[in-house]
Structure formats: structure tokens, C-alpha cells
Write a sequence for this structure.
């Protein structure tokens, strides 16, 4: 007798297939008492040693451990994501409401562009708590006092500067007692170095970051501290002569061939290593490289502010500002625990610890211990911040799509494939297509 | 075909030999680089390394949770393969030996989506999975891998089952073997080679997959090995020996598999076509 | 249902009329088994392949970021068709087609040589196929490293007295390098498929040709190529599809679509639109367009092969 009851056999397989779905749907239900906070970091608070993540010397990993000691029930899990896919992964995960509890991103546009997935933190922080820290406005929708607060600024911000190798400068017989004070002088200086046969500026601009640091100095000199917030709030146009002038000046680095020939192909990761290895007399970089440079070069490294164009309205202006913003996601199941962790991070002793470990930026807590700044490069940057007005850079302010185009255009302009006029126009067009979120 | 003269043979051997070198040299170079220190590498890019080290692998292991990623990968690939292979072989056997009204269309349906690229599917599949709360969980990716691998698997195994003579199956049936006994003790053993081939192909496909793995499992606790290692080779890392070590880990399982199963692979690749 | 099946199976052979009925119910029962066996796989494929196509089509008429939806008719399509960026991206995809003749030529020459069992053919078969099993990220990173300004390729160029080239920063040279990676990774696969076509050729035909005094090259032209026409068509179609749908991994690790979109391909743009620009509607419209191209190619290929078989 045959028994053809095929579906009896098939049932377990169908069940197995379906149970996969069931497993998946039941997984997210967390147990109540021990809490795991997931933190996604766009490589901002993790420290790279020789291009590899070094968790032992990364502030955020240390902070997670210290927090665990204070609050044994809370485990903070740090996840360093590759900046190449960070935006896509955060967007995708947020649509699925399955992203991190805490997001660490660049302050300004990079955070505000995702405000629809982020928690308005206004009601979680008292006015007095917010008064303890500076840079809060960079995390508010539309940068207005009343805008929703979509993140908490961490650190007083990184500033961009020209760094130089003192020995190589001396070898080129150049006296640096008074560094160049205008862009034109800077270009002339670089040409002079080139005449001696050395490479004046070690440059790595594949990602277009150099432009992102120079443009605010140059356009900011012409337009002032609100140069880019005015553009963001449509008080002025991105497509204006000052931007074209800034792009034209920036392009001079490449048309004058005062950088290494492969500048436009090298990745930002090579910038510091190359400069330290003596591949150029000067380099353009930011405060995050203070620590590595000083450790590798000691007193041999000097710095001066990026000089504005001759005849600028602001002859001293410092491009940079709040760099990191810490946000809580709307869909996080541990919002209050996440807020508590952020409060821990921005407390004076924690920020002091961060400054001590990283030496990349001062603390933004008003009760900070200035003695934590030991790095002479950072000391000088802190002095400039006290002395000069600052301009918050274009790529900190604009919506993410505009920022992405901006980096690509910066690279393209340095390659001579896009003209300064066209770059300014394309940015304006993109801004018109991607207006800032209204909230 | 006409034999080539020995001069021609020699010339061709030289050409093919240099193509072979251009294939093998980059892999060899990556292997050597992965065992160098950064300093040694920077001092002498193409020379013979002066010191060998496993420190790059140790750095990867210590800082990028590779152990966890390996476990996740084994889980995802293993379960996906088991499910996909069992579902596909059942379907293929049914379609090959138990035709029914409309089975032609079912078969056609599998073939129609066989070449459907992930470009077309990624957005809707992502949204569906996120509605089902499967994003960020290993089963989410498994379901995608199972579904996207079924069409080719059914197509491939159906052809294999077709080649099993009806007379043997008929004899078994007369001996009282039901569907499952016929499947288990006659059909499967006779298509074992094709089955192995398919398993190897599926492993390669899942191991090398990047797009779904990136989007569905972004979190470190669920990340798979290939995307974790591709991250290290991302555009922002300036440590070539470390990147090389990541490449070695990514490539080794596939190359080892190729070495052990090249016979099956060759057959698997070439049987994708044939009857038009 | 089980009872029906069991009863059907239990019916004893009998006279003419009864045996006919038995056959009918037996067939029906076998049909049911076939149906049940193929059902689970079919459900999976319906849910995760057929349904998504419909879903994507619906999405392509929406303005959506995956959270908010808003019907906008054919606006996504009109904006795609009028977007200079999309035009540029399709042109870029067409440029990547240059890899295909190289893959085909290399593939057919090597496959014929392997077919002739040239000295060491087993070794070559393994080695040439080897890159095919590597992940696109591995191949991509290897080629990116090889073609950087300071990389081995430029070092070799300098050795021969040439100026080094910034391969990856100019659109055409970057496309060239990526195409080279595609050839490197892909010709072994083409070779194997063509080889399978060759092994099916009746060897007598070569003997006849030799009697007629046809040399190697003439045999290649007039016997080999026509005999493996089906395989050639298949390899070509597969590669064209691949160019439109599967370059993501390579582009992602080698150029990220830059400089300034000059190496952005359609599949990369779909990914960007959907997940970086949060514009899933337009991403879906693009994806549907790609789907159309694939469907067209498959149908063309099927038609071509069928008429060929009828010759």
C-alpha cells in the first residue's frame, strides 16, 4: 500500500520557512531591565592608529567602559561605520526603525538632514543644562533659536589651518616669523618654495575636503561669519561672486602646480602620513590631526590660519566650528537612557578626558579645565578661537545632498574639470532642489 | 581541429603564461603585503619583505569583531543554503517528474526571474523587510538569499532530475516507494554531482554579496564578514597591509573552495545554458 | 485530501474501464504531489521577486522616502527622462560595454586553445577562472590599488620612460580601469561557457575541413564560431545585463561614482537615489527602467536563439 500524503512531509518545511519569519519578528522585543545602547559613529570619535581603528585609544570606547562601571545595567555598544556608506545605512535603518539609539554625526547639516528620524531633545535638557555647553545652535533646525534641537554638540569644534614643516621651510630659506596674511602672499610663498625644488603643499583631495576647508576661509573673509547661514536661510544666493572668487582662488593651488602631482587622486587618509613623511613643506588640515602630527614631528610642525583674499572685509576669520553632534533616534526604545548617556558625555570631566586623549579640539563645556590642552597646535588654535571671529563652514550647514555634491565639485574643480562659475551655479541649483527640511 | 605547429604552441604558451601571471601576481602580491608591517611596506613597496608578521590579522581580529562576523556569516550562509537547497530540490523534482496542469507556467515563472538583478529588487524588498521588522536581523538577509537563489537552483536541478530515467523511478514506485522515498533514495543520489555544484555556486554568491548585506545588516553585532572587510578596504583607510589582510580573509574561503571543487564549478557554470 | 490520495493509491488494477479511471486519478494524485512540492519555493519567489516588481512599479509613481508617501503620477519618469545626470549615467553605462568585445575575444580564443588541449590547459582553465570566484570588493580594491598614481602600473610606466597617468580621476581612464577589472574578473566565465559549446561540436567536421585544406584560422572562422553561436549570444547578453545591473560593487570600492558622477552607473544611481538622497520614488522609477531593459534583452536573446534553432 502506498501512502501519498506528500503534504504531511512538506508541512515541516513550510513551517521551517515560516518560522524564520516568526523568529525575525519576535527578536526585537528586548527584555526590560538590562539596557543595551547602540551608538553609530561616522568615524568621528573613534581613533585610527595607522589607518586601523584602535579601540584602546578611542575616547568613545573608553567612555562606554567608564559608563558601564557607573551604570552596570547599561551596556553601550559602539559601532564605527564606514563614512562611505554611513548615510545610506542610517537612512535605510531608520526607515526600518531599526537603527541605533544614538547617532554621532557631523554637527549641522549632516545631522539636521535626518531630523525626521531624530528626537527633538529640547524637553530632555533644561535651559541651565544647555547653558553649560556652547555650539547648541548648530544643532537646531534652520539654525534659529526656536528651531527643534536634533542633537547635542560635542567638543568646541575643529578649526582648519595651514600646517608646515619647520625644517623643510628653513631648508627652502624661508623665514616664518610673519606667516602670509593674504591668500596672494600664500600662493607667492608656495611658488618660492617650488622654485627651490621642494613640493610646497602636500595635498590629498580625492574626497574634495581641501576645498571644504579653504572655501569657508576665502568666502568667509569676503562675506563674514554668517556667510553660509545666510545662504541656508536664503538671505543670499550660493551663486554669487564671492563663491566664484573663493573657488577661483582655491583652483590656483592646482593650476599653479604648487601641490604634489597626484593630489587629486590621493585619499584624505594619506594626507597626514604624507606630510609627516616630509612629502611637502606645508599641508592644509584640521585640528583632528594635532595629536598625530605632534607625536610624530614634535616641535618641527608649525601652523598659521588660512589667509583670506587680499582686500577681504574680514582679514582675520577662522573657518570651522562644532564638529560632532550626538543625537537620539525617534525610534529608539531606550530614549531616556540614551539621553542620560549624552548628559554623561557632555559633562565637564568627561569632555576633559576627551580633550586629554584626543587633543583635537577644546571642550565645549563652560566648566572645562583648560589645563587638559597640552598639544601646542591645539593651544594655538584655542588662542585663535578666542581672538578671531569664526565662520561655520558650508559643509556643516547645508543639507546632505548639497554637501555631497559640494565635495564632488571640490574635487572636480581641483581637476580643472569644472569651472568656478559652474561650481557655484551647480551648488545653487542643488540647494534649490533640496531645500532644508522645515520644522 | 587542426594541430598547431610547435612554434605556434610555444608562442601561445608564452602569451597564455603571461596572462596567467597577470592573474596570479596580484593575488600573490596581496598575500605578501598582508604579512608585512606598514613601515616595511612603505619603505619598499614592491621589494621582498624583510620581516613577516601576523600583526595585521591580529589588529583586524581585535578591533573589527571578526569572530562575531564570521559566526554571523556561517549562520546566514548555512541556514540560507540548507533552506534554499531543500526548497529548490523539492520543487525541481516535482516539476521534473510530477508535471501538473500549469507546471509549465510555474517553471516559466522561475526562469523569468532568474536573471532579475538586485538593482530592481532592492528598494521594494528593503521596504517589505522593514515593514516585517526583519531589517537588522539575520533572518531578514536569509530570506532574501533564499528567495533570490531559488529560481536558478530550480532551473538547474530540474534539468538534472529530468535526466534521471523514468524507468528507475517507475520501478521504485512499483516497489512501493512514495514521493519522498523516491526523492531521497533514487533521485537525490543520481543528481548528487549537480547538487554539489549548485551548493558551491550558492556559497560563492552569498559569501561575495555586498549590497543586501550592507543595507539589511548594518549593525556591528549582525555584520557579515565580506562587508566588514570591504569597509576596511574603504576609501578612507591608508594602511595597505591591513587592507591586504582583509582581502586575504575575504578571498581565502572562495579560493580554497575553488581548489577543491573546480571540477564541479566548471560544470555548474557551463550548465547555465544549453537548451534554448 | 489525504484520504483521497490514499484511496487513489490503493485502487487495484482491474478491467479496461476501471484501469482508465485508475490512471486518471493516479495522474491527478501525481499532479497534486508535483504542485505541493513546488509550492513552497514558488511562494518564496512570488513574495520576494514578483511582488517587489509590482511594489516597485507602484513606488515609481510616488514621491517617497520610505516613510512618507505622496502620489505624483509620472513625475518621477519625466524628471528621469529630462535629467542630464541620468542621460550621462546611461552614456557611462554604454561606455562600459567596451569590456564585452574584449571578454568575448579573449574568451573564445582561450577556450579554443583549451579545447585543443594546449600544453598546461588544465592549469590555465583553473587560473583564468580563478578571478570569477572573488568578491567584487576584492577585485575592485586590487585594481584600485594597482592603478593609483603611486601604484605598480604607474611605476612600470615610469620604468619604460612614460609619464605616470592619474587613471582614476579622469572619467574615461577610470572607466578603462574598471572595464579592465571587469575583463579580468569575467573572461574566465565566458571561456568556460564557450568551451562547453566547443565540446559539443562533432569532431568529424574538423577532419572534413582538414581534407579540404582549411588551416587553423579558417577552421576557427568557419567552423568554431558558427558552432558556438548560441553560447556567444548567451555570453554577450549576460555581459550586457551585467553592465547595466551589477557594477555596484566595483564602482563602490573603486571610484564611488566620481569624479563628479563620471563613473556613476545606473545601478549605483538607484542605490544613491534611494538610500543617500532619500528619494525612493525616483530610485524605483530608474529601477523599473532597468527592468525594462533587462526584459527586452532577455526576450531578444530568446527570440534570436529560437530562430537559430529552427534554421
Amino acid at each position: 500500500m502506498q501512502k501519498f500524503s506528500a503534504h504531511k512531509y512538506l508541512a515541516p518545511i513550510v513551517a521551517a520557512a515560516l518560522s524564520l519569519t516568526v523568529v525575525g519578528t519576535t527578536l526585537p522585543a528586548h527584555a526590560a531591565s538590562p539596557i543595551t545602547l547602540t551608538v553609530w559613529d561616522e568615524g568621528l570619535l573613534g581613533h585610527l592608529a595607522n589607518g586601523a581603528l584602535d579601540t584602546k585609544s578611542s575616547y568613545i570606547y573608553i567612555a562606554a567602559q567608564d559608563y558601564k562601571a557607573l551604570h552596570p545595567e547599561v551596556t553601550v555598544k559602539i559601532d564605527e561605520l564606514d563614512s562611505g556608506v554611513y548615510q545610506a545605512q542610517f537612512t535605510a535603518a531608520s526607515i526600518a526603525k531599526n537603527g541605533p539609539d544614538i547617532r554621532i554625526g557631523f554637527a549641522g547639516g549632516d545631522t539636521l538632514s535626518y531630523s525626521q528620524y531624530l528626537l527633538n531633545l529640547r524637553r530632555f535638557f533644561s535651559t541651565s543644562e544647555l547653558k553649560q555647553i556652547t555650539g547648541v545652535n548648530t544643532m537646531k533646525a534652520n539654525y534659529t533659536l526656536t528651531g527643534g534641537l536634533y542633537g547635542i554638540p560635542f567638543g568646541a569644534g575643529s578649526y582648519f589651518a595651514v600646517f608646515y614643516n619647520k625644517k623643510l621651510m628653513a631648508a627652502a630659506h624661508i623665514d616664518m616669523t610673519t606667516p602670509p596674511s593674504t591668500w596672494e602672499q600664500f600662493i607667492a610663498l608656495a611658488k618660492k618654495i617650488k622654485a627651490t625644488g621642494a613640493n610646497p603643499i602636500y595635498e590629498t583631495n580625492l574626497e574634495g575636503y581641501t576645498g571644504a576647508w579653504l572655501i569657508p576661509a576665502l568666502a568667509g573673509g569676503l562675506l563674514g561669519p554668517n556667510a553660509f547661514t545666510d545662504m541656508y536661510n536664503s538671505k543670499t544666493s550660493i551663486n554669487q561672486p564671492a563663491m566664484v572668487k573663493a573657488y577661483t582662488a582655491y583652483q590656483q593651488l592646482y593650476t599653479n602646480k604648487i601641490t604634489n602631482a597626484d593630489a587629486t587622486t590621493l585619499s584624505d587618509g594619506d594626507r597626514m602620513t604624507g606630510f609627516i613623511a616630509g612629502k611637502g613643506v606645508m599641508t592644509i588640515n584640521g585640528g583632528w590631526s594635532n595629536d598625530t602630527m605632534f607625536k610624530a614631528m614634535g616641535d618641527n610642525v608649525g601652523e598659521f590660519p588660512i589667509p583670506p583674499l587680499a582686500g577681504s572685509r574680514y582679514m582675520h576669520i577662522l573657518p570651522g566650528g562644532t564638529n560632532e553632534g550626538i543625537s537620539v533616534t525617534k525610534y529608539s526604545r531606550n530614549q531616556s537612557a540614551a539621553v542620560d548617556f549624552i548628559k554623561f558625555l557632555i559633562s565637564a570631566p568627561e569632555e576633559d578626558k576627551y580633550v586629554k586623549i584626543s587633543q583635537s579640539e577644546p571642550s565645549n563645556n563652560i566648566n572645562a579645565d583648560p589645563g587638559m590642552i597640552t598639544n601646542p597646535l591645539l593651544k594655538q588654535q584655542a588662542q585663535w578661537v578666542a581672538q578671531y571671529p569664526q565662520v561655520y563652514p558650508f559643509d556643516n550647514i547645508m543639507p546632505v545632498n548639497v554637501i555631497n555634491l559640494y565635495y564632488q565639485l571640490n574635487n572636480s574643480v581641483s581637476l580643472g574639470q569644472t569651472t568656478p562659475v559652474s561650481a557655484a551655479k551647480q551648488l545653487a541649483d542643488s540647494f534649490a532642489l533640496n531645500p532644508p527640511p522645515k520644522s | 581541429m587542426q594541430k598547431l605547429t610547435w612554434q605556434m604552441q610555444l608562442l601561445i604558451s608564452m602569451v597564455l603564461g603571461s596572462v596567467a601571471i597577470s592573474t596570479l601576481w596580484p593575488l600573490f602580491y596581496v598575500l605578501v603585503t598582508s604579512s608585512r608591517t606598514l613601515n616595511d611596506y612603505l619603505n619598499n613597496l614592491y621589494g621582498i619583505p624583510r620581516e613577516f608578521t601576523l600583526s595585521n590579522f591580529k589588529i583586524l581580529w581585535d578591533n573589527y569583531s571578526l569572530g562575531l562576523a564570521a559566526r554571523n556569516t556561517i549562520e546566514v550562509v548555512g541556514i540560507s543554503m540548507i533552506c534554499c537547497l531543500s526548497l529548490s530540490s523539492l520543487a525541481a523534482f516535482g516539476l521534473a517528474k510530477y508535471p501538473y496542469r500549469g507546471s509549465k507556467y510555474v517553471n516559466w515563472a522561475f526562469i523569468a526571474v532568474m536573471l532579475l538583478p538586485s538593482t530592481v529588487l532592492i528598494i521594494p524588498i528593503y521596504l517589505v523587510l522593514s515593514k516585517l521588522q526583519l531589517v537588522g536581523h539575520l533572518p531578514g538577509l536569509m530570506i532574501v538569499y533564499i528567495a533570490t537563489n531559488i529560481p536558478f537552483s530550480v532551473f538547474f536541478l530540474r534539468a538534472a532530475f529530468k535526466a534521471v530515467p523514468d524507468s528507475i523511478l517507475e520501478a521504485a514506485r512499483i516497489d512501493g516507494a512514495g514521493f519522498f522515498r523516491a526523492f531521497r533514495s533514487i533521485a537525490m543520489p543520481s543528481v548528487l554531482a549537480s547538487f554539489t555544484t549548485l551548493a558551491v555556486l550558492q556559497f560563492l554568491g552569498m559569501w561575495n554579496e555586498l549590497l543586501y548585506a550592507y543595507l539589511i545588516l548594518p549593525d556591528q553585532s549582525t555584520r557579515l564578514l565580506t562587508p566588514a572587510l570591504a569597509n576596511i578596504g574603504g576609501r578612507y583607510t591608508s594602511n595597505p597591509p591591513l587592507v591586504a589582510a582583509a582581502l586575504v580573509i575575504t578571498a581565502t574561503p572562495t579560493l580554497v573552495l575553488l581548489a577543491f571543487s573546480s571540477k564541479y564549478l566548471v560544470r555548474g557554470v557551463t550548465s547555465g545554458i544549453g537548451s534554448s | 485530501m489525504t484520504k483521497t490520495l490514499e484511496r487513489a493509491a490503493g485502487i487495484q488494477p482491474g478491467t479496461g474501464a476501471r484501469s482508465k479511471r485508475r490512471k486518471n486519478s493516479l495522474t491527478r494524485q501525481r499532479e497534486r504531489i508535483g504542485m505541493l512540492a513546488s509550492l513552497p519555493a514558488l511562494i518564496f519567489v512570488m513574495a520576494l521577486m514578483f511582488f517587489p516588481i509590482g511594489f516597485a512599479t507602484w513606488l515609481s509613481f510616488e514621491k517617497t522616502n520610505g516613510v512618507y508617501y505622496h502620489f505624483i503620477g509620472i513625475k518621477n519618469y519625466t524628471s528621469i527622462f529630462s535629467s542630464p545626470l541620468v542621460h550621462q549615467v546611461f552614456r557611462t553605462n554604454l561606455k562600459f560595454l567596451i569590456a564585452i568585445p574584449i571578454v568575448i575575444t579573449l574568451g573564445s580564443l582561450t577556450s579554443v586553445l583549451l579545447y585543443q588541449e594546449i600544453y598546461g590547459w588544465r592549469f590555465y582553465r583553473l587560473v583564468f577562472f580563478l578571478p570569477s570566484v572573488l568578491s567584487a570588493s576584492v577585485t575592485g580594491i586590487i585594481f584600485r590599488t594597482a592603478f593609483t598614481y603611486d601604484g605598480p602600473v604607474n611605476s612600470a610606466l615610469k620604468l619604460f620612460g612614460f609619464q605616470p597617468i592619474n587613471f582614476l580621476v579622469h572619467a574615461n581612464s577610470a572607466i578603462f580601469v574598471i572595464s579592465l577589472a571587469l575583463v579580468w574578473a569575467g573572461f574566465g566565465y565566458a571561456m568556460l561557457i564557450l568551451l562547453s559549446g566547443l565540446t559539443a561540436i562533432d569532431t568529424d567536421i574538423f577532419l572534413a575541413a582538414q581534407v579540404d585544406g582549411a588551416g587553423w584560422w579558417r577552421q576557427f572562422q568557419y567552423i568554431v564560431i558558427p558552432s558556438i553561436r548560441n553560447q556567444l549570444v548567451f555570453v554577450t547578453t549576460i555581459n550586457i545585463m551585467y553592465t547595466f545591473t551589477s557594477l555596484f560593487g566595483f564602482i563602490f570600492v573603486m571610484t564611488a561614482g566620481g569624479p563628479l558622477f563620471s563613473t556613476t552607473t545606473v545601478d549605483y544611481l538607484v542605490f544613491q537615489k534611494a538610500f543617500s538622497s532619500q528619494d525612493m520614488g525616483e530610485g524605483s522609477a530608474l529601477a523599473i527602467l532597468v527592468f525594462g531593459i533587462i526584459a527586452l534583452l532577455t526576450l531578444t536573446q530568446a527570440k534570436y536563439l529560437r530562430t537559430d534553432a529552427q534554421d
Summary: The first helix of chain C runs from residue 2 to 10.
